[in-house]
Amino acid sequence: MVQEPTLFIDLNALAHNFGVLKQKLNTDTKFLAVVKASSYGHAPGVVAQKLVDLGVDYFGVAYALEGAELRAAGIKKPILLLHPMAAHFDQILEQNLEPSLYSVYLMRLWIDFLESKNITDYPVHIKFNSGLNRLGIALAEIPEIVSAINGTNSLKICSVFSHLGASDDPNAEEFTRDQIARYISFYNTFTQKMRDNNPEFIIPWRHLCNTSGVLNYPEAQYDMVRCGIGLYGYGNDSKHDRLLRPVAQLKAPILQIHHVSAGQSVGYNHGFIAEQPTVIASLPLGHADGLHRIFGKKNGCVWIHNQPAHILGNVCMDMLMVDVTNIPCKPGDTAVIFDQQHGAQNLAEGAGTISYELLTGLSKRIKRSFLSE
Fold first, then answer.
1. pTM for the complete prediction?
2. Which of 240, 257, 301, 359 is the Cys-Cys partner for 41 at CB 3.0 to 4.6 Å?
């Protein structure tokens, strides 16, 4: 029984998932744990510390503030900053974050910044656009970045990487294999041109695979992999999901029970009108907590006494109402929004979205509670 909305975070499940993914890797392949977006909605500091204990080599975050939060939590492992912005250069330096240089423009700005501070050999990572067309340097831009790198002593190139756009989709195998080939072509061309200009250039690491890449294209694991969603229990495929354990369990108490007559409405804008006598339970979660309006009007359900209770009408900012007509229950009983038996992907799929969006959207006002041995 829970007394307030609580996200239970199972650190033993996290360890299990890390072990499953780690077993897919060669012994010398490094493991980068992606903990952006508050560790996919979980709790960055506690999750990261557990991953340090488990033996991860690197962390990955999207923005400098997230890296600063890890440092404040005592994390000393290297942190790859995936989406750096010029406005945060000072913070990147202060927190010893390693930026991804994803454009010629950003690279030149970063070099100018480092040179203005007389900093040499700062660790950076080169990102190539292999087909996702989000961020990344193009193959045709290699001469420009080689020239920029050779014109300064401020950079230490740690890795060259790219990001797979559809490694979870079995119908996109041709696209994914083309991405892999494009990435290797970029990597080989870049490193060769660097060696041509500087025979002592240290060959950087290669990394390309995300969670689905590890599970579906293990031959492309190279020197390091970057795993996010898999650590939290989701493999983007039922056969992989069976190997993993959802880390987060979201539960909330029933606050009140209403008996609604036929013809009466429930919630804002008459979002649900009862066609017959209906029993409604009100739960203290809403779109301000990450349970968005898309889950209303029976697009989602919660579980009460292991029975499904559909979300009725429009989800409110702080509250949602569910149909418990056929579920004996009372105020104070626990509603399960998702757990290891009823995963977040099930709730998400019912509303036409994905587990990532549901998990990362969970508000900080939801209490976090940690489960471990």
1. 0.95
2. 359
